[in-house]
Automatic annotation (TrEMBL), chain B:
Protein name, UniProt field: DDB1- and CUL4-associated factor 13
WD repeats: 65-107, 108-149, 202-244, 316-345
Entry coiled-coil feature ranges: none
Compartments reported by the entry: Nucleus, Nucleolus
Keywords: Nucleus, Repeat, Ribonucleoprotein, WD repeat
Record-annotated Sof1-like protein domain positions: 337-423
UniProt xrefs under SMART domains: WD40 (SM00320)
Amino acid sequence: MEIQDISDDIDVKVKKYQRGEGADLEALKDKKLKGQLANREELYKKSANAAAKAEKWLMQTEAGRLESEGFEKTWRFSQQSIAQEVDVSSRKNQFDLVLPDLGPYTIDYTSSGRYMVTAGRKGHLAIMDLHTMKPVKDFQVRETVRDVVFLHNETFFAAAQKKYTYIYNNAGTELHCLKEHGAVLKLQFLKNHFLLSSINKFGHLHYQDITTGQMVGNYRSGLGRSDVLQVNPYNSVVASGHSGGTISMWKPTSAAPLVKMLCHHGPVTAIAFHPNGHLMATAGMDKKLKIWDLRKYEVLQTLPGHAKSLDFSQKGLLASSTGSFVQILANSSDSQNYDRYMIHTMVKGYQIQKCLFRPYEDVLGIGHSMGLSSILVPGSGEPNFDSWVANPFETLKQRREKEVRLLLDKLPPESIIMDPTKIGTLRTSNKIQKATKEEKEAEKAAAIAAAKSGPQKKKTKGRSKPSKVAKKKQEGVEKAKRPFAEENKHAEMVVSKKKQKRITEANELPKSLQPFVSRKAGVDI
Amino acid sequence: MKGGGLSIKQRWRLLWIKQNWWREVRVSRNYDPNLRTQEKAVEYVRALNAAKLDKVFARPFIGAMDGHIDAISCMAKNPSRLKGLFSGSMDGDIRLWDIASRKTVCQYPGHQGAVRGLTVSTDGRILVSCGSDCTVKQWRVPLASGIESNDSSDSSDKLLASYVWKNAFWAVDHQWEGDLFATAGAQVDIWDHNRSVPVNSFEWGNDTVISVRFNPGEPNILATSGSDRSITLYDLRTSSPARKLIMRTKTNSIAWNPMEPMNFTAANENCNCYSFDARKLEEAKCVHKDHVSAVLDIDYSPTGREFVTGSYDRTFSCDASYVISGSDDTNLRLWKAKASEQLGVILPRERKKHEYMEAVKNRYKHLPEVKRILRHRHLPKPIYKAGLLRRTMADAEKRKEDRRRAHSAPGSLMPHKSVRKNRIIQEIE
């Protein structure tokens, strides 16, 4: 009995590691290829099983969760009551830093969740080590700072200041001044590609490779000023939200956006992407929060409310903040619907600028007009980290090694595509096959039949005389025939133009060469 | 109200923080695909880097062994001792080399003319050589592994037997398990170690037999190739030839696959090598095309997965990692089979890394960028040009064939002949 339970349990987990469906081997005729692929599939199954077993027996910690008994709702629990239930070291993650003078604060975490950089609008920049709760460096730049991001590790961060963007060291030394970006409103860092992307006051998008310093892309979005920029961690596509309610998604190698979707009736105020790449949450001034499925580009759920800032956690919880109020939504037990999980209200005057989940910890960081706060959100962080992806307990040696390995595995900017699993697969043929004559005839016949058998509108008061009905039907049939006739005319025109050209060219030749002009159609001179 | 289960985490956290700098750093893994984004792109970049590093570290030449005065005509390897290699030259000089030190261990002078074939008996004690002076000689192979100085007084000791026969010999090969060896000349002769005349003699047709090879799995089967463009299979038990296959061009050499003894590969005069299954000779299993001129010699690696061919050189391999080639410029060269392989003792971590690089390269080797790098070979100009020429000629042929087919009435022309069958004229029982 127990073995059965264990194997069922593992089955569910195995699916997670299989990364999609297996290949269809029945359709193959080549025996050798079939054998080789069957072998491969065996290997994949084995490795997925091994990973599932490792997860079951070797993953040390489980995620926590807020559970309510009876009629109590989970969102009724305040931070104080949660703090009473958890252990000391988790309680120290809950703090409030009151910094009233230097403007609304925005924050960013490193990918391991250990270091945090904050920027106050009036020029205060600070890096904090969250394990020891000590500031690493704290300095003033004396000009407006609009956004700040960490680069690949805690030793570098970029700050979007009044006129230009600057890159600083963790000792506070200014390393670079990036003038080309202009007056940037939002910055995002693409980790796998080492690209710093920014959107500036005029709505221009810039991509800069920070290892070589080369500007990889520089595009005008064409949709005006936009201060919403978010990177999709699944495929490194950057999405910007515009004041017409559209969201456009960009990649560094093309001047036109990959996708433009109309999301809201008013300006878009915030975007967030789920780490698995399928879900996107957007909020607009039309007081709606929409959750989209990115594979079909359809709305899954619409929730009421404003949101100035949205963020998905590693476990799929969605935090939305507006004014001085934060609400955290969770999808219950694998259903796609998000509903309220927790709320947190701050002191009335505080205007929340940004809310961001901390990786690998059950913590939500909030940057607001009077400083920083950090609240506990049980179940939001991934409890088991992978040392070779992001290690919160990194030593200096490990950090250096990691930097070298990241650089070796740096992806070229051309590898950004909407579906990253397509790399290495067969490309389907893009050839537009011209319909043969029979096919065209068949299409025409089908269109005529459809027009003839279409719904007949019956008019009242003596307006539906049989002669008029017949005339209408005839018009419908001719309308159906028209596109085919146009196509034919167009094709004939092309052919006749070619013929004309050939004839004029033939006439231009001296008389002695004219007999050698080929009379056959389709032969170019 | 219940809270989350975070206390286990606290314990682990304290353990982490407590670790001292001198203790081994703990690694924890989480294989969840959601933690790693764009795995395929990362793998592709690693495959590309692996292919480039392959070419950067490619240093195939290890060393040359010289000592011969005339061109090398044949080589033999000792199945029981991998370090020793025999080579015979056009002036009758046979030498035993120690590959590790690349020096001659001992010499066997005695042949009057060119030494055409060399082979070692199964136990590795006797070396059989045959030459164009119509003699077959048997020599003793020294057992000691140390380098001995060339002692001419010992040479008469080393020669065990010398048999004279009617015609010049072209090749010799020893059975893999047994006492017989076969020589190729005007016909195929089967000899026993102790008899001075051949035990048996096969003949089919009137032309000289150029090369002979025994099957590694079946000790009684041997394959020969003749100058009448044929490949013949003989069975010693039936004392008559079993099968004959006539091709369009002459086969210069044959090698059996030591791991799959029913397959053999024939090195042909028309720059291709054809792999056959001995049970079904009507079509070649595989055609190997890359040389630009006649392929003269061929040998399989002991793993049976790779074979090495030489044109205008004689080549073979003792071991799946080294290839030895002997040529007309009187020296033997030692090469690495995989040019970028790291020789010597490899640490387990290094080995894992090499295996990973191989695997990731193989996964993406069909993609254009990786394929271009892996396929690239820096060839000498004449060979490169000759290759291009051959390709244009083959393309022109194919195009003409296609057009002929397109413009002739359907069914009037012979159906498509597959490349595998193309070169075979007929098969005779």
